[in-house]
What we know:
alpha/beta
Amino acid sequence: xxxxxxxxxxxxxxxxxxxxxxxxxxxxxxxxxxxxxxxxxxxxxxxxxxxxxxxxxxxxxxxxxxxxxxxxxxxxxxxxxxxxxxxxxxxxxxxxxxxxxxxxxxxxxxxxxxxxxxxxxxxxxxxxxxxxxxxxxxxxxxxxxxxxxxxxxxxxxxxxxxxxxxxxxxxxxxxxxxxxxxxxxxxxxxxxxxxxxxxxxxxxxxxxxxxxxxxxxxxxxxxxxxxxxxxxxxxxxxxxxxxxxxxxxxxxxxxxxxxxxxxxxxxxxxxxxxxxxxxxxxxxxxxxxxxxxxxxxxxxxxxxxxxxxxxxxxxxxxxxxxxxxxxxxxxxxxxxxxxxxxxxxxxxxxxxxxxxxxxxxxxxxxxxxxxxxxxxxxxxxxxxxxxxxxxxxxxxxxxxxxxxxxxxxxxxxxxxxxxxxxxxxxxxxxxxxxxxxxxxxxxxxxxxxxxxxxxxxxxxxxxxxxxxxxxxxxxxxxxxxxxxxxxxxxxxxxxxxxxxxxxxxxxxxxxxxxxxxxxxxxxxxxxxxxxxxxxxxxxxxxxxxxxxxxxxxxxxxxxxxxxxxxxxxxxxxxxxxxxxxxxxxxxxxxxxxxx
Length: 595
Ligand code: 4UW
């Protein structure tokens, strides 16, 4: 059905007389009082202000927005960008668009004007919901857009200001601001038309992912993809109790992990979510206590910082370290069993894992906390509705227990990449199998483990860093003639970081000098940290590479900075067809590591 109808099933009455009771041995197991209190519990809480909305209010406001969008002339099938940090307004914009049949393309709040312009142009977004503080980035992006967004379709993601707060300081002073706050768009009547069965396959979301190769592409996620996903999660996800559990939500809703696991799934099962705009240890600890959070979603680096931050220890009661938190679910990047163990030793809380991809809506593997205790470091069993194969190079299934690429099939696999048939064809094998680009193995009981990645993707703290995007940017630099980017692992960050190898234009650096070539490592590479290099040249190369690192900062968001550094080399190893031999680059990085 329509995702909106799945989230808010059209039950005619919620009065106690009409509500069917579950009766066991003559006793009602859900008494009216308890049911009523569950309905009155908030669906979402703004963790900073304490503002809260119940599920009924969420539904009403979404319908009001849907109607307002219609009045604005926005039609079914148009694309709305939602650009901001987690907030109640973000939820309203997204669900309002869903109800109106408008496709939502969430955009990371950390994006630069350059990245924003790319996604707005590529997605063909015709309206944007934007957090007011991000307006300056939008102004920078507007001139770069191929499809301009009219001013009356720039809608502010913020509660109506209570004072006569003026937006002028954020806008071009020559044009008076005409933007509306999201709630100014709300209008009645409140109803949405059901989707016909064919429309169920229509796109609901357009999240961006680089997939196995190339630039970020829009992933077409349909209503049906998500309703199937939510049904499967209801069976296999950690059992959460709507009358007791509260989820802490600081991961970005704009990433599919947050979108499904912090917004859609909790809303569908009626468990409240405390929304925080970013990861901040102090706010996080305060929120756990203030809102009695019992469940938390993280990416691996969070587990590293929390235990070691010195000022944080003071906030923790040693007898109940993170009370009442009882479970932590990690995903989006590799988690070592060791890190999970350390966290458990410190806080007595089991870290369990899930796995998924933007292309699979996203969860395909997950474990409950109970399973997590036994299977540390694994990603769990295959979620119901999915079929999986573990495939060797050449396309044959490996023997049970051996490593191979994970291929998936199921109703939550994306429709395809937006306006990119070639990429879509490249990612699906014969029989409609979706090739993940991740290398896994499965134990006898059916628990999977991620052991490697064969695709280009780099994950910085769970966020995608597409090497192809960074490479094409670096090629625009006047001093650079070739470049290859790979991930290196940073144990202090518990995350991969991108490292660039670049070939400078002849003459830019004194690298062609024979005396230096003689000291190079291998035939093709001159290490900048080679201690034999003359100090002056080392300093020059270092300064130049730092210049490259800061140059890229004006184009990409912080998760994509070249934190792994810039290595200067004579040439980038490529195949005969010109493909970068990333394995070779990885070897270089390992050699440097040993130095
Ligand atoms: N271990 C190792 C993992 C893991 C992993 C993902 O940005 P995307 O497209 O999507 C995501 C989705 C994350 C996610 C989904 C459902 C879920 O339950 C959960 O954890 C609770 C997390 O990140 O990136 C997809 C790529 O991210 C890597 C892997 O390479 C995959 O192809 N990845 N989860 N547990 N690697």
